[in-house]
Amino acid sequence: MEFVTPTINILIVLPVLLVAGGGALLMLLELFMAEERVKQWAPTLAIIVLALAFLQTIGLWGQTHTTFTPEGSSPMVILDNFATFLNVIFLLTGFFTVLISVNYLPRVGLNRSEYYMLMLFSLSGMMLMGMANDLILVFLALEVLSIPLYILAGLSRPRPESEESAMKYFFLGAFSSAIFVFGIALTYGATGSTALPAVLAGVSNGGALALAGVAMMLVGFGFKVAAAPFHMWTPDVYEGAPTVVTAFMSVGAKVGGFAAMLRVFVSAFGSLGQTWVPAVAVIAAITLIIGNVVAIVQPNIKRMLAYSSIAHAGYILMAVAASVNSPDGVSAALFYMFAYLFTNLGAFAIAIAAERKLGEGVMLDDYKGLAKRSPLLALAMAYFMLSLTGIPPTGGFSGKFFVFRATLEAGLVWLAVVGVITSVVSGYYYLRVVYLMYMYDGEGELHTKPALLTAVALTVLATLVLGLLPGAWYEITKQAALQGLQVLAGG
Amino acid sequence: MTVPVEWYVALSAILFSIGALGVLLRRNAIIIFMSVELMLNAANLLFVAFSRYLGDLDGQVLVFFVITVAAAEVAVGLALIVVIFRTKQSINIDEINLMKG
Lengths: 491, 101
What we know:
- The structure holds 2 protein chains of 2 kinds.
- By secondary structure, chain A is mostly helical.
- Helices cover 75% and strands 1% of the residues of chain A.
- In chain A, helix 8 (207-225) runs antiparallel to helix 10 and helix 10 packs parallel to helix 12 (301-322).
- Chain B has a single domain, classed as Helix Hairpins (Orthogonal Bundle).
- In chain B, helix 1 runs antiparallel to helix 2 (29-54) and helix 2 (29-54) packs antiparallel against helix 3 (58-88).
- The longest helix of chain B is centred in the last third of the chain and has 31 residues, at 58-88.
- The radius of gyration of chain B is 17 Å and the shape is elongated.
- At the A-B interface, helix 5, helix 6 and helix 9 of A face helix 1, helix 2 and helix 3 of B.
């Protein structure tokens, strides 16, 4: 038998290779340099790697490429505007995470050099999630995304909360991966292939086997993006993990899950829309209700933001449910995730500034009197809370507007109603933070270093721009959206 | 004599269910871990069965990926269990309950 090499175009996956290579380089440096020096240089190196990957990614905007094409089969990796846009989101997430980590980690005694390495590895998995054109690559990307996060969640060991967080995340992550891979196996049996174009061609004739496969993959994605009723791990994991890790995974892991979910469900399973759209709509509604209602009673800002992130997964799921019957569904989801990236990382940046020691200063009561101690930071926090609630002029408002519009276009009126009502409910717990900051007096210290302040300033600016000029950015997400059933096979 | 593919599907479904029930019902971290492995191997069996049935080699290649990923999960998972055992002197997940959701 003759060995035929697949067509490989390295340039297409160069951003991913740069990020993963940066992680490997950090690992190698530890062998040759003193540990102190590696720790000193790791953030700078991470920023450089992310900046190079960012430049490369921006250069690929507007192009569509496929690569890793085996002889006589579909490509494994596809790079279109959808993947490029998501790569921008992931690289920005990495960039802001470095900015908020650089002073926080030494301050709380967590300055371990493996932090940046694991973060870069996880980022490379996230980037592959958006580029995967084959179910098995989706699975591999999911694991490359998740496994470093399990370790990062336990970074502040031997602190018991952190260990518990890692343990819970690991078990539920592994459980959901097993369900996911069983779903892939069923889909493979029903369609005879794992390549998305072939899955699309075969899935409508796949019968019960295909439906079971779709259902199990939906459960797997549900766990990853923290959608109810698969959200149980989220509050504990978010509370126990170091706050910078929580910030990173609340955006990165969620958007990573949605990246693959959109590609798989909207393109490959699009023809089964009649079956899965009602299921996703119901999951979205439950997620919205549970996330927003349970957030009200949380006394801890990290737990509150965890339930808030569950709620936001619900809004993105609304857009996913809308994406089969509305041309605006996918672009609304992309815009929402873009706005969520800045708003949520900004809110976490301030939570990090207010955290005195590991796990101290994370209660809502610690935010009392923040406005007197630091008027600017309090103003920024208030602005992020307004954006998370969805009050104009913020990116969060624009995102919700586009999502609700897409949901109405898709004819899911009841779901849009649920979305609006839960948004109103969410105002209660978001605005309570604002109330505590401005109406009370309180003691506390703030750790504001230039890197963190840069992150806050940039995220405020981005949220403002997305709030004031949503149209221009929506055009960009429109270009990045997958067009319904169109699967870009073979270039 | 050949075994029809339906039997393999049924067997792997049973193995998967045993694994899933094990994860949900057992309290020992190592047993939960083994149950997850059982679920992954049920998927592997399904891949191989379909691969033979469809006359397509891809399914068997996929098994290697799943095995590799499972090995990586084992490495991280066992490390986490060891770390937790050092602090808690126990791997009963009912005793790992500092935070309430």
